[in-house]
Amino acid sequence: MVDIATRVWNHKWKIDPIVRSLIDTDFYKLLMCQSVFRNKRDTQVTFSLINRSQQVPLARLIDEGELREQLDHIRSLSLTRGESTWLRGNTFYGKRQMFTPEFMEWFESMRLPAYHLERVGDQYELTFEGSWPEVMLWEIPALAVLMELRGRAVLNDMGRFELQVLYARAMTKLWEKVEHLRQQPQLRIADFGTRRRHSFLWQDWCVQAMLEGLGDSFVGTSNCLIAKNRDLEAIGTNAHELPMVYAALARDDESLARAPYDVLADWHEEHEGNLRIILPDTYGTEGFLKNAPDWLAGWTGIRIDSGDPATGAEVAINWWKNRGEDPRQKLVIFSDGLDEAKIIELYEQFKGRVRVSFGWGTLLTNDFRGLTADDRLAPFSLVCKAVSANGAPTVKLSDNPNKAMGPKDQIERYKRVFGVGEQAAQDVIV
Amino acid sequence: MVDIATRVWNHKWKIDPIVRSLIDTDFYKLLMCQSVFRNKRDTQVTFSLINRSQQVPLARLIDEGELREQLDHIRSLSLTRGESTWLRGNTFYGKRQMFTPEFMEWFESMRLPAYHLERVGDQYELTFEGSWPEVMLWEIPALAVLMELRGRAVLNDMGRFELQVLYARAMTKLWEKVEHLRQQPQLRIADFGTRRRHSFLWQDWCVQAMLEGLGDSFVGTSNCLIAKNRDLEAIGTNAHELPMVYAALARDDESLARAPYDVLADWHEEHEGNLRIILPDTYGTEGFLKNAPDWLAGWTGIRIDSGDPATGAEVAINWWKNRGEDPRQKLVIFSDGLDEAKIIELYEQFKGRVRVSFGWGTLLTNDFRGLTADDRLAPFSLVCKAVSANGAPTVKLSDNPNKAMGPKDQIERYKRVFGVGEQAAQDVIV
Questions:
Q1: What angle do CA A275, A280, A284 make, to 5 degrees?
Q2: Which stretches of B52-159 are DSSP H helices?
Q3: Which residue spans of chain B are classified as CATH 3.20.140.10?
Q4: Domain boundaries for CATH 3.20.140.10 within chain A
Q5: How much is the average pLDDT of A223-236?
Q6: Which CATH number fits domain A160-365: 3.30.365.10, 3.10.50.40, 3.20.140.10, 1.20.210.10?
Q7: Could you tell me which residue ranges the Nicotinate phosphoribosyltransferase N-terminal domain spans (chains A, B) (predicted)?
Q8: Which of A198, A408, B135, B154 has CA atoms 20 to 30 A from the CA of B73?
Q9: CB of A277 within 8 A of CB of A286?
């Protein structure tokens, strides 16, 4: 029976909003936001969209008016009572009251600041300027909107059953990965796929399929809204933007060299346990670990997000050994360009030597490769990064020169300050 | 928004009925029923379920109580006003008023007669006795109920997403066949898959997918209810039960030899055009055509339903040539054990030499092969046939000795009367 009122209601929407909640974002964004709110609240930053896949002509695929409508809709969002209650009341990694009353009060009245959008050739220039804790919350919804609008542009031409078969194929593809992964019952995997997901509904499906198919091996999702709706654990710690902005704020080379550790000193004060995860690659993992203060070796684990993952894990294991720590008590989280075969390979390589976990991103929530003619739904490499802080440009090196970002002279300066030598280049898939 | 009333209503059903309409049946059943109603109304027949796939233990898989509930539900059905209107008013192959007022009046008050059900070992003995025009209408719903209950028994153990992926895989599998078939835009295919379908909803999906994917190449469905609901042409002509019962009623060898032609003489009076399709294999195609009266060569086409299909088509073409007919004006309908590769092969072999059409059955509406562990959803060979008429046993020989049916001595007698020699055996897939 058709629910007539629902149908009429649905027709009243001017648009089909892609992002419908401020907590449809990665959990670590909120953790970092609280840290920034406490430590660097007045820092003025600019975030900018960067399409590393120039062969995807976003401005030809996506109508500018539609993009503006979606972004405007996100600016109209505020935290709902239920979302606030969930953030205030939830237990994250066994800890209650992760978010302070001061932060929650601020968050409840926060609205996302204005955006600047301009078409430049076949790409969009999309930037966000303002105070760091506000601007940083644009990253995930901006990426999700662009990824999903690009998908809709492709789906627009397809027939009803063609669409159903497209999703049938995508479901089958994911389920085959799940069947492959569950042959390793000790595996631990989380969904990290919000930012470059095919769509919200598809991510939600993927998470539920993982839950049924993997059981205890599926430990949670980085997406707060899905975690809330599906009664799952929200997963995440911190990301490159913290050291990037701290570094840009450094007044000289000496404080630049100290910046990545300052970030973690602030973090150390605020967090414990599973939230104490080192992300060492912003300016080269090797130098970072070599110069790290001893208290960092006491942290719970390391997240490997660029470079060859097995090499990164070996570097981490050796570092712990050198600092007198038992790697078998430590956690390595792999989160860069993973697919299920790589996950199993890394798991088999490191199980027993270190605790291993996986943050599975784009190839979990957006693996539409090979499912359409010309592969027009294949995921691509879109990021939204802090490009300046209080007027100074930011720099990222990572363990893969293909992921480096920033003005050329500054990249050279950072390489010198952080002692980064030759790096092996890796293809950036997603 | 949940439609509460609908949900409560759905919970009030004692069972989830598999067959919900008397026209959820093959169109040729109704055509034959009208012919029987006119010519052999008082013939007493017995129809019986025969599971050719003894390895499928139906009585262990299907609860007897559930089976009875489904069969009882079918006995409660009567033709609805809309169904009657559709049958009375529709155009079939361009002809209006296919069904006479007398037949419709009878059909509107018809209820299916009692059934006899008994468990024998791991199988069910299911028989129907009574007047021919009533009993014959049990065939399709009885088969559909048993096929779907067996499917439900397997699906019962599966998780929610596992189920969704099962159907995703089945959709993908069918769509790949559709993509293969549409490379031949001149192909003409109809759905003949009611009797051994996976389920009603699945057949309905398959028909709609064919409609979108194949466009004009999809010419209709044998299922009257789906044809009505989806605004399609209902397809079909006649089947083996007519010559089988006519033959069983023959009093001596001479009238036995004439029986298959008597059937078609009655049919000839009642039908024209696309409904004049010869089904020649009941007692061997070769002898049937050799002894056929000349007026039969004027019929529109021949349906090939057993034996090697290419051989059967060649026999038909040669017969038309020998009778002075132009095969290019004639229609060959292939309908036995087809899958998409075989369809394309036969199409390429015969296009230009004869008009070709395909009645695609079980591997359209029930190809779940390879989709579950142990292949427990693979289709199997279940039939429901007339086994006696006015006390005399029926016999079927067909062009494949593996499809022969009837008492041994009668099979020998029929072979003698119809001059059937050695036959090549073919595996019966479905």
A1: 170
A2: 58-61, 64-75, 81-89, 101-109, 132-135, 139-155
A3: 11-156+386-395, 162-365
A4: 16-156+382-395, 160-365
A5: 96
A6: 3.20.140.10
A7: 23-146
A8: B154
A9: no
User: A230 — contact with chain B (CB < 8 Å)?
Assistant: no
Phi, psi of B62 (to 5 degrees): -110, 125
Long-range Cβ contacts of B118-122 (<8 Å, 24+ apart):
B119/B59, B119/B64, B120/B59, B121/B59, B122/B57, B122/B58, B122/B59, B122/B60
Cross-chain CB nearest to A1 (options B3, B164, B165): B3
Q: Check if B169 contacts A (Cβ < 8 Å).
A: yes
Q: Mean pLDDT in chain A?
A: 95
Residue B168 touches chain A, beta carbons under 8 Å: yes
Class of the CATH-defined domain B11-156+386-395: alpha beta
**Looking at chain A, which residue has its C-alpha nearest residue B176?**
A165
Q: Is A159 in Cβ contact with B212 (below 8 Å)?
A: yes
Chain B residue with minimal CA distance to A159?
B212
Q: Cβ contact (<8 Å) for B164 and A172?
A: no
Flag if A209 and B165 touch (Cβ within 8 Å).
yes
Of B3, B168, B212, Cβ closest to residue A172 = B168
Radius of gyration of chain A (CA): 21
Chain A interface, best mutation among B162, B164, B177, B201, by max A CB count within 10 A:
B164
CA distance B377 to B361: 16
Cα–Cα distance between A77 and A93 in angstroms, integer?
Answer: 28
Q: Do B171 and A165 touch (CB under 8 A)?
A: yes
Q: Which segments of chain B have a pLDDT < 70?
A: 429-430
Count of pairs with CB atoms under 8 A, one residue in A, one in B: 57
Side-chain half-sphere exposure of A150, counting CA atoms within 13 A: 28
Quickly state the pLDDT bin for A429 (edges 50, 70, 90): low
SS3 A187: coil
Q: Is the ipTM of this complex over 0.95?
A: no
Model confidence band, residue A273 (pLDDT cutoffs 50, 70, 90)? confident
Residue of A nearest to B9 (CA): A1
Q: Token pair 């009837």 is at which residue?
A: B406
* Span A230-241, pLDDT tens digits: 999 999 999 999
Q: Name every chain A residue with its beta carbon within 8 A of the beta carbon of B162.
A: 175, 212-213
Count other Cβ atoms within 10 Å, centred on residue B132. 24
Interface check B424 vs A, CB under 8 A: no
Q: Does B157 touch chain A (CB under 8 A)?
A: no
Nearest to B161 among A159, A164, A213 (CB): A213
User: 3-state DSSP: chain B helix, strand, coil percent, rounded to 5?
Assistant: 50, 15, 35
Are A394 and A404 spatial neighbours (Cβ–Cβ below 8 Å)? no
For the domain made up of B162-365, give the CATH fold. Answer: nicotinate phosphoribosyltransferase (3.20.140)
Burial call B226-244: b when 16+ CB within 10 Å, e when fewer: bbbeeebbbbbbbbbbbbb
In this complex, which of A160, A167, A208 lies closest to B212 when CB atoms are compared?
Answer: A160
Please give the pLDDT value at position B430. Answer: 66
Average pLDDT of the segment spanning A311-337: 97
- Nearest Cβ partner for B161 among A1, A169, A209: A209
Contact map slice: B 352-411 vs A, CB within 8 A = none
In this structure, what token pair is assigned to residue A367? Answer: 């693996």
CATH homologous superfamily for A16-156+382-395?
nicotinate phosphoribosyltransferase (3.20.140.10)
What are the chain B neighbours of A212 within 8 Å (beta carbons)? 159-162
Distance CA(A285)–CA(A299), nearest Å, equals: 16
| Assigned token pair, A90 | 């939830």
